[in-house]
Amino acid sequence: MKAKIIVVDDGSDNETRQIYKEYDNIKLVQLEREDKTARTPSRARNAGIKNAMGDYICFLDSDNYYNTTFIEEMLKVDNDIVFCNWEIVGLDNKKIDIKTVWNMREDILKGKPK
Question: Residue 2 and which of 26, 47, 106, 107 are 20 to 30 A apart at CA?
Answer without folding.
Answer: 47
